[in-house]
Design brief:
Blueprint (H helix, E strand, L loop, with lengths): L12 H10 L10 H17 L4 E4 L9 E4 L12 E4 L6 H7 L2 H11 L9 E2 L31
Antiparallel strand pairs: 1-2, 1-3, 3-4
Length: 154
């Protein structure tokens, strides 16, 4: 199921220049308000059902990071703190469809010159509060390949 069908477009000259100068492009209104509400509802449902995913959590600033745990085993209070839900794309076609929306994949293809694929996903409601770090150690692209990140902000 594709959320927007073939609703792709070419990047503008300004967007391409912004990519070259700053290393990112913002796609405003890539999703409708209705689609973003569905994404928020999906996240709420995850917290109710607690599927077999892993989650990285902090309960609050006073408690140390609890680390990676099984989602169903963390206290419900973790929802109101800093957390990252890991790799939901492996379990849910909805997450894959959102991440591989035609408009996003067309844009990524224009930027990297290849068809993109998903290698991981994180879902969070607040910033992770991680120190500055480099993820390429954990997610290196294949030799000669390219690594690009998307963020769908609700």
């Amino acid at each position: 199921m594709r959320l927007w069908g073939n609703n792709s477009r070419k990047l503008t000259k300004h967007e391409l220049e912004h990519w070259e100068q700053h290393g990112f492009v913002v796609l405003r209104k890539c999703f409708s308000k209705n689609e973003m509400q569905k994404a928020r509802d999906f996240l709420e449902q995850l917290w109710i059902e607690r599927p077999s995913l892993t989650i990285d959590t902090y309960l609050d600033n006073k408690h140390p990071r609890l680390g990676r745990q099984i989602f169903s085993q963390v206290p419900i209070e973790a929802k109101n703190s800093i957390y990252k839900l890991n790799d939901a794309y492996l379990e849910f076609s909805y997450v894959r469809d959102l991440a591989l929306n035609d408009r996003i994949t067309t844009t990524l293809s224009q930027l990297i010159g290849e068809n993109p694929c998903i290698c991981n996903s994180l879902i969070f409601e607040r910033g992770s509060q991680q120190d500055i770090h480099v993820d390429t150690y954990y997610m290196p692209p294949p030799p000669g390949g390219k690594l690009i990140v998307t963020s769908i902000c609700l």
